[in-house]
Amino acid sequence: MGTLFEVLTEHFDELGPGFWVTVRLVGASFAIALVVGTLVAALRIAPSKWLQRLGGMYVETFRNIPLLVLLFISYAGLRRAGVPINNWVAGIGSLGLYTAAYVAEVLRSGVFAVSKGQVEAGLSLGFSHPDVLRRIVLPQAFRTVIAPLGSITIAMIKNSAIVGVSLLTLPDLLKEARIVQARTFQTTETFFWAAVGYLLLTAGATIAFRLLERRFAIRR
Amino acid sequence: MQTMRWRWPAAVVLALGVLVTAGCGDDDDKQAGSGETATTQARTFAAGTTMAKLKDDGEIAIGVKFDVPPFGFKNPQSGAVEGFDIDLGKRIAQELGVKAKFIEAVSDNRLPFLKDGTADLILSTMTITAERDEEIDFSEPYFVARGRVLVKEDSDIKDVDDLSGEKVCTALGSTYEATLKKQAPKADLRLVDSYSECLELIQNGAVDAVSTDDVILTGMIQQDDSLKLVGDPLTTEPYGAGIKERDTGFQKFVSEVIAKWKRDGGWAAAYQKWVGRYTGEKQDPPTTTLAEALKLN
Q1: Please, what is the angle between helix A187-215 and helix A2-10, to 10°?
Q2: What is the ipTM of this complex?
Q3: CA atoms of B26 and B176, how far apart (whole Å)
Q4: Is residue A22 part of a domain?
Q5: N or C: less crowded end of chain A, CB within 10 Å?
Q6: Is A220 within a domain?
Q7: Closest to A94 measured CA to CA, from A142, A26, A181
Q8: What is the pLDDT along chain A (220 residues), one digit of tens a residue?
Q9: CB contact, 8 Å: A169 with chain B?
Q10: Residue B155 and residue B292 share a domain
């Protein structure tokens, strides 16, 4: 037990900043995922066939490319093509846009889960199409998507480790843990603390989404 | 109808399964094929030694680099692993009278591979250091490399002092992490898993310099002649074969094979084939001993 805590205290000046890099990476990616995901979901439920197709293309593109491949394309590929993208932009962009595809799918299914009768009732009461969406459909859809959004967020936090092992050389929690491990050879202890770091983030996300779920629950 | 509906997916899954397993089998064949069959008269070893055990297995698993020309790399045409380390590995296998099976060991996983028995021997451009010596055992040095700095032809970096504030790539778990922190404390270190990633990063301009062993950097220049070496050597890096800790018998055996290899011209031939031909430099087999090497790093 002694060495377990020693590894943390002796290498906190590496593991700590690594954790902070992961927090920033995850935070920025989450913001991008929510904004872009919402926009894409809006495209997918738009009244125009072409807009729907555009949204569909986005989802299929980003959902079907492995994140690691996406990271290579966005960093090595774009740089070779002359775009001077830096590793932070490539990392946040890839993880954010990748997660956005899943967010869009969840939001779309949430909207479709609201029964068609409600839309028709709204329209026949004289609401405009955007008004029906904003005042009737989305508030109900939001409730059903909280839980799946929570799962996506947790998956995203864990996927941030893929950014860490890619060639982006971002010094995230996993990378710092591997640096400490390579120097000290204290494999079990080092990765134990890395796992604790990720657990802190995923547990935080779980609690946040639980609270949201409770806040928007229907009292029956 | 119920059965009909399930027959198709089941057939597809089955077909996929067959394909996947067939693919695996293929892979194994290829790996085994990269080893060479023994040609010398088989020696006998005392029971209970690592040599006797390997002999029983008929195979030695050697961890080598797959992406570090000219020491260990996959030949793009044949798919076989080749290089200076590979030649030494084949020689050791030959002396044992077994087949050499080469597995990929990057800087970060080679020590665990030895400890957990995934590899019986490591020949992956590994510098002998006192720190590593506490985890594993080393053979006598079989090559001495020097630490250098690689930059693009048009770079302003002239030597290690110019690395301050510049992005410098090296491998995670290599000796250069500590070396650079000491000799260029203000450099922005970028640590990757393998040197081929460093090559990609310097080519696409994401880093300004790569620092590691001269022979590895020379291999990069062979692939891209718009790169060049600058400055004086930073370090001396004696390479040793990695052996499981406290396996003194096997360590002695490997050191003996290396000594023989140096004596009978095997070393010189491998050097000329993989290094001298490209650098135009002549070199004698290293005379540095393990004890001296351990004091260096």
Answers
A1: 80
A2: 0.81
A3: 38
A4: yes
A5: C
A6: no
A7: A26
A8: 568 999 999 999 999 999 999 999 999 999 999 999 999 999 998 889 999 999 999 999 999 999 999 999 999 999 999 999 999 999 999 999 999 999 999 999 999 898 889 989 999 999 998 899 889 988 888 899 999 999 999 999 999 999 999 999 999 999 999 999 888 888 899 999 999 999 999 999 999 999 999 998 877 6
A9: yes
A10: no
